[in-house]
Amino acid sequence: MTGKVRGIGVLGGTFDPVHNGHLVLAEAARREFALARILFIPAAQPPHKLGEPISPFHHRAAMLDLALVGHPVFGVSRMEEKRPGPSYSVDTLRELRTDLGWEQPLYFIIGSDAFAEITTWKNFNELFRYADFLVAERPDTAPGHLDDFLSRQPGFSRDPAGVCWHHPLGARLYPLPVDAFPVSATTIRRKIRQGQAIQGLVPPPVEAYIRQHRLYRPGA
Protein backbone atom coordinates (compact mmCIF):
# COMPACT_ATOMS: atom_id res chain seq x y z
CA MET A 1 0.00 0.00 0.00
CA THR A 2 1.39 3.39 -0.96
CA GLY A 3 0.41 6.92 -0.07
CA LYS A 4 -0.89 8.39 3.15
CA VAL A 5 -3.16 6.18 5.24
CA ARG A 6 -6.44 7.98 5.86
CA GLY A 7 -7.71 8.14 9.40
CA ILE A 8 -10.50 6.33 11.19
CA GLY A 9 -12.76 8.29 13.52
CA VAL A 10 -14.27 6.86 16.70
CA LEU A 11 -17.51 8.30 18.05
CA GLY A 12 -18.73 6.66 21.24
CA GLY A 13 -21.79 7.27 23.34
CA THR A 14 -24.97 5.87 24.78
CA PHE A 15 -26.98 6.78 21.65
CA ASP A 16 -30.29 6.52 23.50
CA PRO A 17 -31.38 7.44 20.88
CA VAL A 18 -28.98 8.44 18.12
CA HIS A 19 -30.05 11.82 16.78
CA ASN A 20 -29.23 14.23 13.99
CA GLY A 21 -26.72 16.08 16.17
CA HIS A 22 -24.56 12.96 16.23
CA LEU A 23 -24.65 12.82 12.43
CA VAL A 24 -23.76 16.52 12.12
CA LEU A 25 -20.76 15.94 14.40
CA ALA A 26 -19.58 12.87 12.48
CA GLU A 27 -19.95 14.59 9.12
CA ALA A 28 -17.96 17.60 10.34
CA ALA A 29 -15.14 15.30 11.43
CA ARG A 30 -15.22 13.36 8.17
CA ARG A 31 -15.13 16.53 6.08
CA GLU A 32 -12.54 18.50 8.06
CA PHE A 33 -10.08 15.61 8.46
CA ALA A 34 -10.82 13.58 5.31
CA LEU A 35 -11.53 10.46 7.36
CA ALA A 36 -11.83 7.16 5.55
CA ARG A 37 -14.31 5.76 8.08
CA ILE A 38 -16.10 6.68 11.28
CA LEU A 39 -17.09 4.01 13.77
CA PHE A 40 -20.10 4.71 15.99
CA ILE A 41 -19.54 2.63 19.12
CA PRO A 42 -22.54 2.36 21.46
CA ALA A 43 -21.63 1.75 25.09
CA ALA A 44 -22.97 -1.51 26.50
CA GLN A 45 -22.73 -0.29 30.11
CA PRO A 46 -22.02 3.46 30.18
CA PRO A 47 -19.91 3.97 33.32
CA HIS A 48 -21.36 7.45 33.95
CA LYS A 49 -24.90 6.03 33.87
CA LEU A 50 -24.54 2.93 36.03
CA GLY A 51 -27.77 2.48 37.94
CA GLU A 52 -29.72 4.72 35.57
CA PRO A 53 -32.34 3.28 33.21
CA ILE A 54 -31.13 3.02 29.61
CA SER A 55 -32.59 1.22 26.64
CA PRO A 56 -31.35 -2.31 25.91
CA PHE A 57 -28.22 -2.42 23.79
CA HIS A 58 -29.94 -4.16 20.87
CA HIS A 59 -32.40 -1.27 20.48
CA ARG A 60 -29.71 1.39 20.58
CA ALA A 61 -27.51 -0.48 18.10
CA ALA A 62 -30.46 -1.15 15.78
CA MET A 63 -31.32 2.56 15.71
CA LEU A 64 -27.72 3.33 14.80
CA ASP A 65 -27.86 0.81 11.94
CA LEU A 66 -30.96 2.58 10.61
CA ALA A 67 -29.54 6.08 11.07
CA LEU A 68 -26.37 5.30 9.12
CA VAL A 69 -28.02 3.84 6.03
CA GLY A 70 -26.94 6.00 3.11
CA HIS A 71 -23.73 7.06 4.86
CA PRO A 72 -21.17 4.60 3.44
CA VAL A 73 -18.29 6.06 5.44
CA PHE A 74 -20.15 5.57 8.75
CA GLY A 75 -20.46 2.19 10.46
CA VAL A 76 -21.56 0.66 13.77
CA SER A 77 -19.25 -1.39 15.98
CA ARG A 78 -20.77 -3.66 18.64
CA MET A 79 -17.39 -4.34 20.24
CA GLU A 80 -18.39 -3.02 23.67
CA GLU A 81 -21.32 -5.45 23.88
CA LYS A 82 -18.82 -8.32 23.84
CA ARG A 83 -16.80 -6.97 26.74
CA PRO A 84 -18.00 -7.58 30.32
CA GLY A 85 -18.27 -4.80 32.84
CA PRO A 86 -18.56 -1.03 32.34
CA SER A 87 -17.71 0.29 28.86
CA TYR A 88 -14.58 2.34 29.41
CA SER A 89 -13.19 4.33 26.48
CA VAL A 90 -9.61 3.44 27.36
CA ASP A 91 -10.38 -0.27 26.92
CA THR A 92 -12.08 0.40 23.59
CA LEU A 93 -9.19 2.43 22.19
CA ARG A 94 -6.68 -0.13 23.40
CA GLU A 95 -8.63 -2.90 21.65
CA LEU A 96 -8.88 -0.88 18.45
CA ARG A 97 -5.14 -0.29 18.47
CA THR A 98 -4.57 -4.03 18.87
CA ASP A 99 -6.84 -4.74 15.92
CA LEU A 100 -5.72 -1.89 13.62
CA GLY A 101 -2.04 -1.62 14.47
CA TRP A 102 -0.11 1.54 15.20
CA GLU A 103 0.29 2.78 11.62
CA GLN A 104 -3.43 3.47 11.25
CA PRO A 105 -4.31 7.07 12.21
CA LEU A 106 -7.07 6.97 14.83
CA TYR A 107 -9.14 9.97 15.91
CA PHE A 108 -11.33 10.04 19.00
CA ILE A 109 -14.26 12.42 18.39
CA ILE A 110 -15.63 14.13 21.48
CA GLY A 111 -17.66 17.19 22.36
CA SER A 112 -16.00 19.98 24.31
CA ASP A 113 -18.41 19.54 27.23
CA ALA A 114 -17.49 15.87 27.59
CA PHE A 115 -13.80 16.63 27.09
CA ALA A 116 -13.92 19.05 30.01
CA GLU A 117 -14.80 16.05 32.21
CA ILE A 118 -12.13 13.73 30.80
CA THR A 119 -9.96 13.87 33.91
CA THR A 120 -12.72 11.90 35.68
CA TRP A 121 -12.52 9.02 33.18
CA LYS A 122 -10.79 5.74 33.94
CA ASN A 123 -7.04 5.97 33.22
CA PHE A 124 -7.71 9.11 31.22
CA ASN A 125 -4.06 9.88 30.47
CA GLU A 126 -3.71 6.51 28.75
CA LEU A 127 -6.32 7.59 26.20
CA PHE A 128 -3.71 9.91 24.71
CA ARG A 129 -1.46 6.97 24.00
CA TYR A 130 -3.88 5.39 21.55
CA ALA A 131 -5.52 8.14 19.49
CA ASP A 132 -5.50 11.76 18.46
CA PHE A 133 -8.49 13.82 19.58
CA LEU A 134 -10.98 15.90 17.63
CA VAL A 135 -12.70 18.16 20.15
CA ALA A 136 -15.96 19.57 18.80
CA GLU A 137 -16.60 23.23 19.44
CA ARG A 138 -20.01 24.69 18.69
CA PRO A 139 -20.39 28.25 17.32
CA ASP A 140 -21.85 29.34 20.68
CA THR A 141 -18.72 28.19 22.56
CA ALA A 142 -16.63 31.06 23.86
CA PRO A 143 -13.59 31.69 21.62
CA GLY A 144 -10.47 30.12 23.05
CA HIS A 145 -12.42 27.83 25.40
CA LEU A 146 -10.42 24.73 24.44
CA ASP A 147 -7.11 26.60 24.51
CA ASP A 148 -7.90 27.96 27.96
CA PHE A 149 -8.80 24.50 29.29
CA LEU A 150 -5.72 22.80 27.87
CA SER A 151 -3.39 25.54 29.04
CA ARG A 152 -4.41 24.66 32.62
CA GLN A 153 -3.79 20.91 32.19
CA PRO A 154 -0.34 19.57 33.10
CA GLY A 155 1.72 18.20 30.24
CA PHE A 156 -0.13 19.68 27.26
CA SER A 157 1.79 21.97 24.93
CA ARG A 158 0.65 24.18 22.08
CA ASP A 159 1.87 23.41 18.59
CA PRO A 160 4.13 26.26 17.41
CA ALA A 161 1.93 26.74 14.36
CA GLY A 162 -1.16 26.95 16.55
CA VAL A 163 -2.90 24.11 14.70
CA CYS A 164 -3.21 21.67 17.59
CA TRP A 165 -2.07 20.73 21.09
CA HIS A 166 0.30 17.89 22.02
CA HIS A 167 0.12 15.41 24.87
CA PRO A 168 3.34 13.84 26.23
CA LEU A 169 2.11 10.35 25.32
CA GLY A 170 1.92 11.32 21.66
CA ALA A 171 -1.65 12.43 20.99
CA ARG A 172 -2.46 15.58 19.10
CA LEU A 173 -5.65 17.46 19.98
CA TYR A 174 -7.43 19.43 17.26
CA PRO A 175 -10.40 21.77 17.63
CA LEU A 176 -13.31 20.67 15.42
CA PRO A 177 -15.76 23.44 14.47
CA VAL A 178 -19.31 22.07 14.33
CA ASP A 179 -22.57 23.71 13.33
CA ALA A 180 -24.89 24.07 16.31
CA PHE A 181 -27.65 21.46 16.46
CA PRO A 182 -29.75 22.17 19.56
CA VAL A 183 -30.85 18.67 20.49
CA SER A 184 -29.95 16.05 23.05
CA ALA A 185 -31.08 12.49 23.67
CA THR A 186 -32.48 13.65 27.02
CA THR A 187 -34.68 16.22 25.27
CA ILE A 188 -35.87 13.66 22.73
CA ARG A 189 -36.84 11.16 25.42
CA ARG A 190 -38.68 13.88 27.34
CA LYS A 191 -40.59 14.97 24.24
CA ILE A 192 -41.68 11.39 23.57
CA ARG A 193 -42.85 10.91 27.16
CA GLN A 194 -44.87 14.10 26.85
CA GLY A 195 -46.39 13.09 23.52
CA GLN A 196 -44.54 15.77 21.54
CA ALA A 197 -43.22 15.39 18.00
CA ILE A 198 -39.55 14.61 17.38
CA GLN A 199 -39.67 15.06 13.61
CA GLY A 200 -36.41 16.56 12.36
CA LEU A 201 -34.51 15.64 15.51
CA VAL A 202 -33.76 12.03 14.54
CA PRO A 203 -33.53 10.34 11.12
CA PRO A 204 -36.98 9.21 9.90
CA PRO A 205 -36.14 5.47 10.16
CA VAL A 206 -35.12 6.00 13.80
CA GLU A 207 -38.36 7.86 14.50
CA ALA A 208 -40.29 4.94 12.99
CA TYR A 209 -38.33 2.42 15.06
CA ILE A 210 -39.02 4.33 18.27
CA ARG A 211 -42.71 4.41 17.43
CA GLN A 212 -42.82 0.73 16.43
CA HIS A 213 -41.14 -0.45 19.64
CA ARG A 214 -42.83 2.16 21.86
CA LEU A 215 -39.52 3.32 23.26
CA TYR A 216 -39.31 6.08 25.87
CA ARG A 217 -43.04 6.10 26.55
CA PRO A 218 -44.36 6.21 30.13
CA GLY A 219 -44.37 2.72 31.56
CA ALA A 220 -42.26 1.31 28.70
Please describe what this structure looks like.
- With 220 residues, the protein is an alpha/beta fold.
- The protein has helices at residues 20-33, 57-67, 89-100, 112-115, 124-130, 145-151, 185-193, 204-213, and strands spanning 8-13, 37-42, 74-76, 106-111, 132-137, 157-158, 165-166, 172-177.
- It has one domain (8-183): Rossmann fold (3-Layer(aba) Sandwich), CATH 3.40.50.620.
- 34% of the residues lie in helices and 17% in strands.
- Helix 2 (57-67) packs antiparallel against helix 8 and helix 3 packs parallel to helix 5.
- 32% of the residues are buried.
Number of domains: 1
The strands making up the biggest β-sheet line up spatially as 3-2-1-4-5-8-7-6
CATH superfamily: HUPs
**Topology, number of strands:** 8
CATH class designation? Alpha Beta
Approximate shape: globular
CATH topology: Rossmann fold
By secondary-structure content and strand pairing, the structural class works out as: alpha/beta
Portion in beta strands: 15-25%
C-alpha end-to-end distance:
51 Å
Q: Averaged pLDDT, please? A: 91
Structural features:
Rossmann fold, single chain, globular, 220 residues, alpha/beta, 8 helices, eight-stranded mixed beta sheet
